[in-house]
Amino acid sequence: MRNSEAAPDPLQKATTAAVERSLNAISQSEDLTETFGYLPTELQRVLRLPASLKRCYVLRILMALPSATCAMLLGLNPHAVNRNACWAAQILARIVQAEVEGKEDPSARVFFGMDLFV
User: Fold this and answer.
1) pTM for the full model?
2) Could you report the per-residue pLDDT of 77-88, keeping only the tens digit for each?
3) How many domains does the chain divide into?
């Protein structure tokens, strides 16, 4: 290893290994909110996101991995990772606002063509 290259962060290495093993399992699970009902409301909202956005949001925002690392794990380019993470954050904000106002936000459902308010 050259002096200019930093040693990989142990947390990042562990996260990478865990993500590589679990991406398919998460994608195949039908009802994550029921399975993970013990999670805080904020994380249950994340589970309601479409899989492609959820993966980017969790890795890029919650785990704070560099976009290049996320891109490598997900088979995307770094721009797509950042774009999907931003979209996910916008949808989560709409979900929270709709919950506060006591109504659904149909724009999120229509935009992604799926029911985010299960």
Assistant:
1) 0.67
2) 999 999 999 999
3) 1
